[in-house]
Amino acid sequence: MPYIISEEARDLLSDVKKFCDNEVREQAKEFDKTGEWPKEMYDKAIEQGYTALEVPEEYGGVGLSRVDIAALMEEMAKADAGFATTVSASGLGMKPVLIAGNDEQKRRVCEKILEGSFAAFCLTEPGAGSDPGAGKTTAVKDGDSYILNGRKCFITNGAVADVYLVAALTNKELGMKGMSMFLVESGTPGLSTGNHEDKMGIRCSNTCDVVFDDCRIPAENLIGKEGDGFKIAMQTLDQARTWMGCLATGIAQRAMEEAVAYAKERIQFGKPIIKNQAMHFKIADMEIKIETARQMVAHALTKMDLGLPYSMESAIAKCYASDIAMQVASEAIQVFGGYGYSREYPVEKLLRDAKIFQIFEGTNEILRIVVGNNIVK
Ligand SMILES: Cc1cc2nc3c(=O)[nH]c(=O)nc-3n(C[C@H](O)[C@H](O)[C@H](O)COP(=O)(O)OP(=O)(O)OC[C@H]3O[C@@H](n4cnc5c(N)ncnc54)[C@H](O)[C@@H]3O)c2cc1C
After folding, report:
1. N- or C-end of the chain: fewer Cβ atoms within 10 A?
2. Annotated catalytic sites, by residue?
3. pTM, 2 dp
């Protein structure tokens, strides 16, 4: 069962399917080998407006509901999860501004995204992953500027973004309570990129270090108030996790479709292997998991759209969808037998792509802590 979406989104969905079939699905195999960031493919996606789907209507966006957008994002992830991650990371980068920015900041960032810029969300540091409150990047007030120093790592879109949302300490003594959120634009002196990650999956997404070396930005680029940065970062991740659940569901759906198609073609013991009931049970288990993940994503997004609390639902959606994406991709390899283990066939890539969804935007261990705390309190 796909998401229940509006008529407008249904039209857009068929455009996204065509785009992904023509521009992403096959091409991604090559980018998976080379690890290149395919600018031409992304330029075409920008032209179609796919990188700006999350821009709110009041700032010039298309005005779809979050569930509508999920249907489009799942389709992109089915074609290639690296492509979908790049697109979705702009939504992630925009969120701190949409959550806590003033009207001018929201307008500025949304305009940039609509013009085709990418955004990046810079929280993680070498010594601060699951524990982002241990971050060491600083922002020191100097007249009507802040001067940023520090190193962020594993930043999606790090080398290709025009807009960076950066968590930095304005008061080191206060730890996470002294953290603030800043908007930094590409080209600002002192902003550079470092080590590029050579990843096992989502290889056509860009992941690298982002370095701040006496990087001076206008004081008006502070998002919200000094000391609000950690709260804004957590609210950002609370929302963004559901989107990662949506992408992981797309990987699982693709894995099941590949498995079914192969099982219809592969003859053993004189008949297609799909004719074995054991195979039906495998496919049924895949579908049960995928549909449950999709409905959890839809539930969390609907709560967001309605302005209801969604923190725990978002954690469940990401945790469950990424766990089942790993299981379904692994079972799809099993359906392909030895061919599934070969790089010539599409399913081993799906397993590699799925793994990161158990790790970023809060590892699944950390998300189980979030869910546990919600229940216990
Ligand atoms: C491809 C990729 C893209 C990314 N994109 C971004 C991005 O755009 N922006 C950004 O800011 N970050 C990004 N990240 C960083 C990502 O969010 C972190 O890698 C993640 O939060 C985990 O942090 P860590 O890698 O330091 O692992 P660690 O925190 O060192 O964790 C290592 C292991 O210990 C476990 N663990 C840690 N603490 C506990 C605990 N209290 N209880 C139980 N288990 C625990 C973890 O679950 C994990 O299994 C990205 C990472 C990757 C790999």
Report:
1. C
2. 361
3. 0.97
